[in-house]
Structures are given as C-alpha cells and as structure tokens.
Amino acid sequence: xALKLYNTLAREVxxxxxxxxxxxxxxxxxxxVYAPTHIGNLRTFVVSDWLRRTLKRNxxxxxxxxxxxxxxxxxIKNSQIAGLPLSIFTNQFEKAFFADLKSLNVESxxxxxxxxxxxxxxxxxxxxxxxxxxxYQAEDGIYFRVAKADKYGGLAQLNLESIKTQSxxxxxxxDKETPNDFALWKFWQASDGEVGWDADFGExxxxxxxxxxxxxxxxxxxxxxxxxxxxxTIDIHLGGIDLIFPHHTNEIAQSxxxxxxxxxxxxSHVAFxxxxxxxxxxxxxxxxxxxxLVARDFSPLAYRYWLLSAHYRTTINFSWExxxxxATALKKLQNHVADLALQTQSVxxxxxxxxxxLDKFTEAINNDLNLPVALSIVWQLLDxxxxxxxxxxxxxxxxxxxxxxxxxxxxxxxxxxxxxxxxDIPEEIKNLLTERESARLAGDFPRADHxxxxxxxxxxxxxxxxxxxxxRKI
Length: 474
Ligand code: AMP
Ligand code: ZN
Description:
- The longest helix is centred in the C-terminal third of the chain and has 24 residues, at about 320-345.
- This protein has a five-stranded antiparallel beta sheet.
- It is an alpha/beta fold.
- It is about 45% helix and about 15% strand.
- The model is unreliable at about 175-180 (pLDDT under 50).
- It has helices at about 40-55, 75-80, 85-105, 120-130, 160-165, 210, 220-230, 245-260, 290-295, 300-310, 320-345, 355-365, 370-385, 395-410, 415-420, 425-440, 445-455; strands at about 5, 10-15, 25-30, 60-65, 135-140, 140-145, 185, 195-200, 215, 235-240, 265-270, 275, 280, 315-320, 460-465, 470-474.
C-alpha cells in the first residue's frame, strides 16, 4: 500500500521514494499574476494540495514551495496597458489568487518565493552557465545553448536532432512548439519601461547603466528559486501539463547544467480543465473564475468536489450541469456528516476509525492519487453503515463512521468538520434533542413528546429521518 505516483520522466506509475527518509520536498510552479486566475489554473493548485495531503497521510513531513511569477513578458506588457507600476499591477491578482486558494481549502505552501525577490540568484546562475559555455550572449540577451545539453528534451521526449538545428526564441510563451535556444536574460529595451535589474554581464555592450539593465527569462526564475529555497535536487516538481515543454524542459536543462545533479526525481503534471472540448485559457476567451461560480451561488468547495470526480491526469470538461451535480452531492455529504455528528454527541469521546475502510481509502489515494475511487469509498461507507436510529448500540458504529469520514477529509479537504459544528443551533437546544432521543430510546414516550414540544417553542423542530433525528429551524 506504499505510495505510487506517475512520473512524467519515466512515463509510468512507480513507487515514490524521497531523498531523505520521512521528508518530502515539493515545488509547484505558481501563477503568473497578470490576469484573474481561472478555474482551470486552480485545478493544478488543488491537485498540488491533494498530493501534499497524501504525502502527509503517508507519514511524510512535507516541505512545499510555490512561486509567484511576478515578472515576465505578460506581466510587463499588461501592467503597461493598465498604466500601473509592475508590482501594484501584479499584487491585485496575487491577492485574489490567494483568496481563491483559501476558499478552496488549499493549505498554504511553506514558502512562497516571488521571482522579483530572487533576481540576484538568477544572475548568479546565468553567470555559471556562461562560464560553463552553456550560455552565450546575443544582441538582445543571454541565451541557453540547447545543443550543449546532451539530455535536452528528455522530459518532453523531444527529438534532439531536430532541436539542434533550430534558432533562438525570444518570448516566454509556453504555447510555442519549437524547442530552440531560449532566453535566460533579456537586455533592457524601451518596451520594458521601468522594469529592469542591473547585472554585470553584457560584456562588449556600452557600459551605461541602461544598457547593463535587463530582466530574467521565465524559465530561469523557477530554476533559481528552487535552488535557493530547496537546494539542487527536490523530490517532486508539479505543474500543469502544458508546462512539460518548454518550461520544465528548460528548467531541467539550466539547473542540471549548473549543478550536475537531477533537478527533481518525480515530475507530476495535471491535465486541463476544458470548456466545450478546448482548453480553458485566457487566449481562448473561455475562462470562468471562482468569482463567476460564487455569483451563481455555488460554493468554491463544490468546485473542489467536482474536481474529485476525475483522476488528475484526465482532462475534464467543465459544465454548469456537472457542477450542479457536484454541489448537490457535497450538500448531501455535509448533511450526512451533520446528522452523524448530532446522533453521536454522547459517544464522541469513544470514536474509533473503521480500519477496513481507512485501508481501502489509503489504497486508492496511494495508487497515483485515485481520488474518484477514494470518493466512492466515502459513499460506500455511508451506505454500508446507514443504520436505524432506534438501536442505541449503533451509536458507536455511527461514531466510527463519522471519525473515519473526518479522517478521509484530511486528504479530501472538503471542510466536513464545519458540518459537524452545527454552529447555528444553540447548545441548549441540542441538549434538549439529546435528552429527547434518550427518552425515546428508553421508551419514555410522554417525556419524549414533552421535550419535542419544548424544542418547538424555541423555534426549532425535529424531523425524524431514516438516519436519525434532525433539528430544523421552523
Ligand atoms: P499560469 O498562471 O498561466 O502560469 O498557469 C498556472 C498553472 O495553471 C500552470 O501550472 C498551468 O499549466 C495551469 N493551467 C493553465 N491552464 C489550465 C487549464 N485549462 N486546466 C488546468 N490547468 C491549467
Ligand atoms: Zn516553473
């Protein structure tokens, strides 16, 4: 039942092994903060959260890092269109992004480096690449020499011969399909406006400050941040599937040319969210944000629940109908949990897990994060243990079911603990319900009826349902 993960490097599911026993390091390529994040982007970060929680469930102490790309071609261009300084422009999208993660119950990464804070490290790395002849200076910047990197393109399974004959590419865009020499550093040009850092390379160029200014290419940003925050080799590197090439391919080439060591042992890639069978992307004009979902009265957690319905390496097609289905299922699950919590108040201290189900669940998540199966196990458990409320001995079984579901939720992250809190029902009314239930179970029906009337006078009523008594506001 040990954890197995699909590794893009090997193109197969294999046992996960970390460099240090009991510890796992993980880096997720974070958002480029130039526009509101859409729910397609958010899938990558929810999956990253599930992987972190799964590692934790397997006893690993996990160190997670997610960067923020706050300088690149797109952020510069769009800040200029908006007429705002780069940092003010990117900050608004960054704030909104982290608010989205919070409402999706994604736990924060241990460290969140910003590209603009690590430019010195990027410059250092580029210097090493120049010294080792892995980089060269061109008229507009410093480029990585792809032909010198023997194993270039392994992650993306590219054809090396065709790569070596192609020329340079200048933009950061990752939808380009040509594997050319790529920019590590771009010398300042008028269109960069205020954005730029001084670097002491650029030999042969006039020594004026402006001409020594420049900015990093997108790929070197992640290489430098990983090395600065986590070291030469990490256990897992994660991102959307579109990052395999060129972004991750180029990260590997740069980092490994500098350190001579593998950048990451496991590469995990998350499939797209599609809209009408094409990728959800700003350039396609088909994006939906979390705010759009909330405006239609969906809870962000309904989206998280919907994501559970497909394996992370499967493309999923978004539709409002599918989301509606997920929202209904989540509500049902929350109601089950609330009922179980209400019915087991007196035995909550003696809750013990249902080991059989816990094992089944762990087996599913450890099989390359098979969350659709894990979710079906939650429902199986509820079906199997739906017990008649009249039998008091079943209270312990229900308590065990609740404990097991809350344990599952440490991985699923649906915030089911909130459903147990029944925060809106005052304590004294809940106590009356417990008393009434005890009287009923003891056969003292006059007292049970009296207590029911008492509850009614407080503005609540009891529904006796097949899964036990439920309080409801009149
Ligand atoms: P970006 O902010 O564009 O750099 O993207 C952030 C993350 O979202 C990257 O890991 C992308 O690969 C991922 N991503 C972008 N579009 C989608 C999509 N439609 N579905 C899933 N992930 C996506
Ligand atoms: Zn990256």
